[in-house]
Design brief:
The protein is of the alpha+beta class. Helix content is 33%, strand content 23%. The chain has helices at residues 35-41, 61-64, 67-83, 93-117, 155-160, 185-199, and strands at residues 2-6, 51-55, 119-123, 126-131, 137-142, 146-153, 162-169, 177-183. The strands form two sheets. A four-stranded antiparallel sheet has the order 1-6-7-8. A four-stranded antiparallel sheet has the order 2-3-4-5, with helices on both faces. 30% of the residues are buried.
Length: 222
């Protein structure tokens, strides 16, 4: 696993940002979100709060986020293929394999719903993670309270060119906000750093060290 701990430096980085009314010079705009995403953010971003980034996980999330289930599904498929002929002819491979394939569709549907309902926002005031299929949860940290930002890349993430950002505040035991399996992770990290430098407290976040919390992306920030 590769970890890049970041203690944002003092001094802001210039550049205009987008607002709810429209994007300027690389800023994001909520008007470009899907209907489901706009419902998710309804009332969350007040007028006048500038949206720097509004992104979703990479589409690799569909496979990587359910890695254990996909491995189990593949084993079940191979077992049905090889052992099916040994079963009763009425419930042999022709009866078992469709059930396994249906399970694969269910796993993909679950992953797709999870992906669709996830949204990662960076504004001039806070960093936010929205997620939840049946029960939506919103995690956020004001920029002024951010202690550290950590970029992690597991082996599977390195192989697919994605990475995950974990954000913690002072006194936390882990990542309070995690952006899972995002594309262009280094570029996103740079944008987060620039935003903290510009809109965070003068002198940058306090505390020593570049990596905050525990280096475990399976923590509560997911």
């Amino acid at each position: 696993m590769v970890e890049t701990g970041v203690q944002p430096a003092a001094g802001g980085v210039g550049g205009a940002v987008g607002t709810r009314g429209g994007a300027r010079d690389g800023g994001a705009t909520l008007a470009g979100l899907s209907t489901l995403q706009r419902i998710s953010t309804a009332g969350l971003i007040p007028e006048g709060e500038a949206v720097i980034l509004a992104i979703k996980p990479s589409r690799w999330f569909l496979l990587l986020s359910r890695g254990g289930l996909w491995v189990g599904w593949l084993i079940a498929l191979l077992a049905a293929w090889w052992l099916g002929p040994l079963l009763d002819t009425a419930t042999g491979a022709r009866g078992v394999i469709p059930l396994v394939l249906a399970a694969g569709v269910a796993i993909m549907l679950l992953a797709a719903l999870d992906w669709q309902t996830r949204l990662y926002l960076l504004t001039d005031r806070r960093i936010v993670r929205i997620a939840g299929i049946l029960r939506q949860t919103v995690r956020e940290i004001p920029l002024r309270n951010i202690q550290s930002v950590t970029l992690t890349k597991s082996l599977r993430e390195r192989l697919t060119g994605v990475g995950s950002l974990g954000v913690s505040s002072a006194g936390s035991d882990g990542y309070e906000v995690a952006w899972w399996m995002i594309g262009k992770p280094e570029e996103t990290l740079r944008r987060v750093r620039e935003t903290i430098d510009r809109y965070g407290p003068p002198g940058g976040p306090g505390g020593a060290g570049g990596v905050g919390g525990v280096g475990n992306m399976d923590g509560g920030g997911r």
